[in-house]
Predict the structure.
Amino acid sequence: MPASKIGTYSDLLDEQIAAVSVDGVKIALYKIKENVFATNEMCTHDECSLEDFGKIRGDEVECMCHGAMFNIKTGEVTKGPATIALKTYPVKIINDDIWIEL
């Protein structure tokens, strides 16, 4: 699938989670130390919204519903109760535009 433009870098706030929808897939965007990362927006443990209930902790996101934690860069579970990793997506910044590949 070709890359999709999903927003602008300058609109993303540091250390906050923004959600976008791309072809019906809800994606969470994270701006950390001038880098942008993307994962599925729903926690794999209990389908809680990371935009609404997630908190960035360094390079991890914690789902405040039940305390599951994931590495933002790899999607890997770093703390249960989740056992399934978040899907991650490649992100490119071109000029000020954010592009993602599903």
About this structure: The domain at 4-100 is CATH 2.102.10.10 (Rieske Iron-sulfur Protein). The longest helix spans residues 50-53.
